[in-house]
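Progress report, Aim 2. The chain analyzed during this reporting quarter is listed below.
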Amino acid sequence: MKLGLQIRSFTWPGGPAAISETLGRIVRTADDVGFDSIWLMDHFIQIRGVGKPHEPMLEGWTTLGWIAANTSRARLGLLVGAVPYRYPAVWVKAATALDVLSGGRAWLGIGAAWNQEEAEQLGIPFPPLPERFEQLEDTLRIAHAMWEGEHGTEGSLEGHHVQATRLLNSPQSLSRPRVPIMVGGGGERRTLRLVARYADAGGRELLVALQAAARSPNTTPHGLWLLCPGDSATGTPHLDGLVVEVIDGTERIVLDGDFLNRLRSAAGSAA
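Predicted structure tokens for the chain:
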């Protein structure tokens, strides 16, 4: 079993002046005792359920770079990044920079985002959900292109909302074949297709949905088929056994029998 640590609050004794020292002590300890990964939220204002709006909240990528300098083993990422907060290529360059400076320890965690109130308060454009899913797919396509080969494909790409003329990435990520990708969010219909096509991991929400489907008597032992109209948001811890197929022009996702059995076993254990 691999354990990750998510740091969601920077409200510690000593106020802002003590954040650097306290955070350093926490991440060095986590790294030393064997945590596999360290994660931050991608928020600019503290969220309800964790703290109050005036409590400290550090920008995620900048803070991950600082954490990289204070650790040597754990992988690092945002759990998960809010796609409308940055342009697609900026997401890839930021993850690449973290990967290079950390010695190949970056994750790209990204999702369609949910905190409209935060975005509006800070003047950040926050389009409707269908458009945010399109932004997410654009970003994932660009990530794969920029992490391909020695310097990216250097080709063009026309997405839903992006037109890129030369997808060059130098330096290239140290993680090969690319930085691992986690797609976060909730709901299996939009999310699962993007996870299966572009990602290496996903969030707990989709695993719960898949486990519920695995309990269904309508699910055959040969595989679980889900109709996917086309969009995205989250996933499951291990994605071997998840395959996108196109049948009669309809895009579907199949989970092979072994993967389905693992889901059923996990669902039974959680019941």
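The mean pLDDT is 81. The helical segments are 19-33, 60-69, 88-101, 116-121, 129-146, 188-198, 204-215, 257-270. These observations will guide the mutagenesis work planned for the next reporting period.
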